[in-house]
Amino acid sequence: MALTLTDLFCGAGGSSTGAVDVPGVTVRVASNHWQLAVDTHAENHGDTGHICADLSQIDPRYYPKTDILWASPECTNHSIAKGARHAPQPDLFNPVPDEAAERSRATMWDVPRFTEVHRYQAVIVENVVDVARWHPYRAWLMAMDSLGYDHEVVYMNSMHAWAHGAAAPQSRDRFYAIFWRKGNRRPDLGAVQRPPAWCPEHGDVRAMKVWKNAARAGRFKSQYRFACPHTECRGREVTPEWLPASSIIDWTDLGQRIGDRARPLAEKTMRRIQAGIDRYWSGADRDPLVVNHVSGADGTRSSSVREVAPTMVAGGLHASLLVPVEGREGKVARPVAEPYRTQTARNETGLLTPFIAELRGGGSDARSITQPLATVTASGNHHALIMRNYGQPIGGEAHLTTPATEPVRTITTAGHQSLLTGGSPAIEDCTFRMLTPSEIKQAMAFPDNYRILGTKRDQVRMAGNAVTPPAARDLVAAAAESLEGAP
C-alpha cells in the first residue's frame, strides 16, 4: 500500500530516514525552521519536498495533504531537568528571553492545527518523556480527540526498537503519541514494544513490558522493566538485547595520553575518570569503561563497556579483542575494530576494554563500551573515550586481550564519555579523546553514508536533536499496517 508522510520539525532527518525504510511509505514534504537542517535533509532525501519555515507562523494549507503526519515539536523546554529558571535555547546554544520558552512549548499545538486542516489518517508525535508533565497536556490530547482521533502513548527506549530491524546503539528514552482516525483499525503498538531477550528457562523470547506503577509512563528501568512472557516464569526479569557502544567507535584513534596534554583536563572530568578506574579496574576484571561527564555523583558516573551505551553525546573508546566464551556457531573471536555483536543477557564475551566518560552531568559518570551509549544530546560533545596507554603503537591488539573465561559486561552508550583500559593505571597513563560527530551519527543509527552538513558543533547539535531512525521505522510501520485496506 502506497502511503505519503509529512515530517514536521524534521531536523536532520532521522524520522524521515526511518519512515522510508517502511515498504510503500514515501516522505512527500519535510519542514524545519533551521535552514542548515533543511539542507541536510535535502542532501539525503532528494525526492522529498522541503520548506524552511517557522511552523507556528505558517498556514498549514501551504502544505500538501498526506496520509501520515510525523511531528517532533521542540522538546528543550519540556524537559523537567531544564528547569523553569534556565534560559531557553532555541538553537541549543544561544540564550533567548523567557517568552521564547513558552513559544517553544507552544509548538505542540501545531500538531492539532495541521491535523485540523489535513485530516491525516494517522499522526505520530515524538518528544521527551517529560512532555507528559506539561500543564496543557491533557487539553492537547482532548484537542486531538475533538478532531476525531483515538490515541495511544508509547514510552520507548531507542535501544529496544527491534520490531523491523536493528535497534540503535544508544539508550534514549522518548515519548511517542500515536493517533488514528476513529473508525480506523488500531495500530498494533504492543508488538513494537516487545524486544528480543534471553530467558534462562525458555531461551529466546519477546520480552514483555512490566510497569512499576499505575501511571504507566516514564523511562526504562526507572518506571518499567521487561519480563519473560511465559506464565511459568512468573514475571522473571529479562534484559532485552542491545547493540554496544563499541560498535560505533573508530578504533584507529586511541586519543592522547592524559599526562601529555598541553591543557589539563578539568578537575570534575578527572574525578569522573578516577571513579571509573576505581569502580571497574580495581578487581580481576579490567573492562574498558564509559565515563559520564554529564550528570550525577562521581561514584555513579562509570559503567562497564559490556553495558548498553548511554544516551548519545561525544566520546570514544578502544579495545583489541572480543573473545566469546561459548563455542556455538557464529560465536567466534573478532577484533574490536569490527562492530561488537548484538548483546543479550547472557555473558558470552570476554575482553579487556576501555570505557567512556560522560562529561556533562546527570546520573552517571562512566560506562563500559560493551553497553549502549548514553543519550546523545544537542548541547555539545560530552562523551570522551578513556583507555590505558601501554606505550605501544596504535593498532597493537594483543596487549588489550583478556582471558575468555572473564565475561564482558553489558555495553552502554552514555554521552560525554571517555575510554579507559587496563588494570588500575594512573590517570596520567590513560589516553583520552571525545567522540567524533561521525561516531555520534552512528550512535543515533543513521546510515554510514548519511551526510550531516555544517561545522562539528552543528553536526553534534543536529544529531542530538534527531529522532533515531529505528524508532521511527517501527512506529511508522505499525501505523502503515493499520491503514491497509483503509479508505
TrEMBL record:
It holds the Pfam family DNA_methylase. Belongs to the class I-like SAM-binding methyltransferase superfamily. C5-methyltransferase family. The active site is at C75. It comes from Brachybacterium kimchii. Keywords: Methyltransferase, Plasmid, Restriction system, S-adenosyl-L-methionine, Transferase. Gene3D superfamilies: DNA Methylase, subunit A, domain 2, Vaccinia Virus protein VP39. The keyword Transport does not apply. InterPro entries: C5-Methyltransferase, C5_MeTfrase, SAM-dependent_MTases_sf. One of its GO terms (biological process) is methylation. It is an enzyme of class 2 (transferase). This is DNA (cytosine-5-)-methyltransferase. GO terms for molecular function: methyltransferase activity. Its EC number is 2.1.1.37. It comes from the Bacteria. PROSITE patterns: SAM_MT_C5.
